[in-house]
Amino acid sequence: MHTKLIQAALNQYSIYGYNGATMRKIAEEVGIKPASIYYFYKNKEELFIAAFQHLLDNHFCKMENILKEHKDKPIQEIFNAMLQGIVDHHTDDMQGTNAYISLVTSPLDEISDYLHNHMLRYNDWLTESLESILKKRYPGMATNEVDCIVKQFILIGNGVFWGIKLYEGEVLKEQITLAEKIIQSLCEEINEKYIKQSFSE
Predict the structure, then answer these.
(1) What is the C-alpha separation between 40 and 48, in angstroms, rounded?
(2) pTM, entire model
(3) How does DSSP assign 88-142, residue by residue?
């Protein structure tokens, strides 16, 4: 029942936003009485946070699997695969994407706190994972440089995410192509700097 309630809540958030997604509408979608929801979640906010956690954890798991699958490939391929993973994850589930946007823009302090803590956890994982990969390929790369590269990738990924909501069809493809070109330039700059450095040593 927890799963059904979360899926119904996400559907309602995607259509009506937080304020419009009432417990009555969620209960009707599942086929139960509104009061029955309170056996599982003490209030709307608790269900709200459970739904948000479900979305974020799914995305995190997707990114972990992509990085695990591509970790031995060239850095540009890794970045491109993760970028495409963001696109696939959100375009394949526009309901979840719309719900995510609804949740991110919600009035709840708890959501802001959860999002902040999730992003810290995600960024720490991404930084540690990419630092390990980058330092293996480019032993001379400093930690602050790795941090800068990761931040640039996150910025590109965020831009593509919002592009999914704003654009479609050929325009979205163009946005993704431009993002890949930025990644290519970033990777070429890294290669030029550290391959030259290894030769000079």
Answers:
(1) 12
(2) 0.81
(3) HHHHTTHHHHHHHHHHHT-S-HHHHHHHHHHHHHHHHHHHHHHHHHHHHH-TT--
